[in-house]
Amino acid sequence: MFYVENDGQVEAEMTYHMTSLDKMVIEHTEVGDELRGQNVGYELVHAAVEYARQHQIKITVWCPFAKKIFDKKADWSDVLDK
């Protein structure tokens, strides 16, 4: 999970699972009320993209929120599992 923590509490998270050593599935993104509107969800997905690039991992997107972001970011297509 990629997450934002505050005082030991997870305030935002993006969950995923690995289907193999080089394939990641983004399952869900959730941002708490206090962090909404601050691009925290975008930053979590972006962190996953950077992680995927560093480790030569391809991403499949199940999460509707993350899918909307990927649809807007053509420069992230290099990590999408087609």
**Global morphology:** globular
| Tally of separate helices | 2
Report the biggest beta sheet as strand number plus sense, adding barrel if it closes.
4 strands, mixed
Spatial strand arrangement across the major sheet: 1-2-3-4
Unreliable sequence segments: none
Q: Averaging pLDDT over every residue, what do you get?
A: 96
Structural class: alpha+beta
Tell me the span between the first and last alpha carbons: 23 Å
Q: Count the strands?
A: 4
The rounded Rg comes to 12 Å
**Proportion of strand residues:** 35-45%
Query: What is the succession of H and E elements?
Result: EEEHEH
The helix content is 25-40%
Write the layout of secondary structure elements.
Blueprint: E1 2-6, E2 9-20, E3 23-31, H1 40-54, E4 58-61, H2 64-72
Parallel strand pairs: 3-4
Antiparallel strand pairs: 1-2, 2-3
Throw out a few tags for this protein:
alpha+beta, four-stranded mixed β-sheet, 2 helices, 4 strands, 82 residues, globular
Structure description:
This protein is α+β, with helices and mostly antiparallel strands and 82 residues long. The chain is 29% helix and 37% strand. It has helices at residues 40-54, 64-72; strands at 2-6, 9-20, 23-31, 58-61. The chain has a four-stranded mixed β-sheet with strand order 1-2-3-4. A hairpin with a 2-residue loop joins strand 1 and strand 2. The model has no long low-confidence stretch (mean pLDDT 96).
